Amino acid sequence: MLFPELAHFKKIPSLLVLLALALPWSVSLAQESDKEDAEYEKTLPESRRQEVAATIQGKPVTRQMLVFFNESSKSGLTKKEIYKKPAAELIDLVKAMALNRIAADHARQPGSGVGVEVQEMARRKTEQVVLGTFYRNEIQNQMQEPTEEEIQEFYGANTESFSVPFTFSIRHIFVSAYESVETQEGDTLEGIAERIGGDPALVERILIDNDAKSPRAPGYLSGDRTAIKPLEPGEHLLVPLSEEGRKAKRDRIAEARQRLEAGDSFTSVAMEYSDNATKGEVIQGIQQSGRPVLPAILEAVESTPEGGITDIFETRHGYNIMAVVQKNPERVKPLEEVRIAIVQNLKQRKRDDLIREMLEKIYQGPELKVDYATFKDPATSPGLTVVRVGDREFAKEGFIRPELGETSKEMRDEDVDMLVRNHRDLATLLWFRFAKSLGLDESPEVLALNDASANRLLRDSWLKAKRDEIEKELPSAQEAKAYFEKHRESFMTPPAYTFYALALKVPGESQEGKDPVAETKARAAELLQGVGASEEFQRVAREHSDDMPGLGEDALLENARATDLSDAMGAELAALGRGQMGRPIFTNGYVVVPWLVDRLEPRVPEYEEVREMLPKMVQNVKKARFPEDLVNDLLQEADIQIQ
């Protein structure tokens, strides 16, 4: 409520239920529609809004539906773009709507893998969409701006509510007439009062040293000591000073006053003399409302001009000097200052009136049946049905709240009505059914928003269920064999070579002006000069080869796939015949000379050779292509036609 003192309406049962469900949609849409879009939309003819941009499974999708869907799905397009672009350029938005819709249809089918909890969440989201649209159409859009006459009348009738009390800002020097004491073992209140103040009777004026500064022993002098807690070590107290101690404090603040009169700044004097935490800082906006201002402070401020410094004055806690920084007299705010708040208040009243009228229609409708006698009888079972709406039943236990106690026969029908109207699920059901009776659940706006909320939730859950299916179930033998037959060529093995190798590591440095690779090749040629048989080659390779990854002590590499060799080595081996020695090849930091022993030509394996690995391979292919394949299937099912 804008003005707490104006209790302008009785609280409406179920109002919060409606707002909690409806407002998130209306607010989000309002935030995402900028002023330019809103102004542009106002100029559009209805024919452009209802122009069919596409069809999904033969059902029309208008440009206005795409606007509603876009605002909730946040695609990045503006309203103007959706209304102005050719329909073909909106295909991505149409596809997103279609995917949500078709996938959600699959999710609703038995055995879809989408759980009951998700189905219930989607149902509630649909309710939110319908109720949000209902709220905007039947409440928000029916509201009109208050007239000037209404604003003037409200202002005149509530002038007192717009009054501003006298406020002031000060700087403050405070010298306390109390001494801070931390209690010790064996201390008593009387002993502390006598030691500090010189009089045991000062016990009742001892304060607790906290923000409240409340008395430590209230009622002490009157004899009512039952509420006084025993004194414990470590308590922090403020104890009133003796007359001699107070005189020292008066002298101290008098000295501070003399410093001010001599021209010292208020802040510097406060930093040196003041016992309060503000130390001369400006304390702003002090007023009588809330925590009362001490009369002595108020009198000192009122009698001192703005910019002046007060005389020394005493309050019950000590001695004070104040610099009056600013004084704002009591006044009534002018209309223009409170106009916005008044407009909001009047609009809230109109909104509440519209909701109240709608509530009466809904709760007085023929669908709601309340069994008042059973409801009020404390002897009936909590599980017994007491309210019906169509085929929905609500048990008594759902209406009994602990803070209200058990129901009784003495309850009035009005009390039962109040409990009924505050039942959240019942209220939601009644609002939803009423909105459906107006045809809102089939309105273009609701259908589009539902695609972006409930259907999106179902889509995501269904896609996850389909992905889980792929993870859990391996393809059948028939499916694996069919995959093999379709992709036989992809199983072809590359050429493989068995060969001896002389491998000489190329040094990082060489003699000036010489190529280390060329030098290493020359050394290899020298080592192999005159070699003509494999036994001789193997002997030289074993004796002179450097350690090279993959090369064993026998200098033999078996079944080395061409795909694992460097291009230069692969080409060299491909050109050799069995029993032939190749040329020196530089590869991976080595000069290698091969002697080809055998070659395995490329071939496609038989099905039996790869049968065991096929199911996992097919599963991995499916996972890699998911959800692309599924999306393509859904879009084909959607049968999108751009108009």
- Looking at how many chains there are and whether they match, the oligomeric state comes to single chain
Largest sheet: 4 strands, antiparallel
The helix fraction, in percent, is 40-55%
| Structure annotation, total helices | 25
Shape: extended
Low-confidence stretches: 1-33
Distance between the termini: 51 Å
Rg over C-alpha atoms, rounded to the nearest angstrom: 45 Å
Class based on secondary structure composition and strand pairing: alpha+beta
Q: Determine the mean pLDDT.
A: 85
Short account of what is shown:
With 643 residues, this protein is an alpha+beta fold. Helices cover 46% and strands 15% of the residues.
What would you say this structure looks like, in words?
- Residues 1-33 have low confidence and may be disordered.
- A hairpin with a 2-residue loop joins β1 (52-56) and β2 (59-62).
- With 643 residues, the chain is α+β, with helices and mostly antiparallel strands.
- α6 (91-107) crosses α25.
- A four-stranded antiparallel β-sheet has the order 8-4-10-9.
Write the topology of this structure:
Layout: H1 15-32, H2 35-42, H3 46-49, E1 52-56, E2 59-62, H4 63-73, H5 79-84, H6 91-107, H7 116-138, H8 148-157, E3 163-164, E4 167-176, E5 178-182, H9 189-197, E6 207-208, E7 236-240, H10 243-261, H11 266-273, E8 283-287, H12 295-302, E9 313-315, E10 318-328, E11 331-332, H13 335-363, E12 368-370, H14 372-376, E13 385-389, E14 392-395, H15 413-421, H16 424-437, H17 444-452, H18 454-472, H19 477-486, E15 496-505, H20 516-527, H21 534-544, E16 556-561, H22 567-574, E17 585-587, E18 590-600, H23 607-610, H24 614-625, H25 628-638, E19 641-642
Antiparallel strand pairs: 1-2, 1-19, 3-11, 4-8, 4-10, 5-7, 6-7, 9-10, 12-13, 13-14, 15-16, 15-18, 17-18
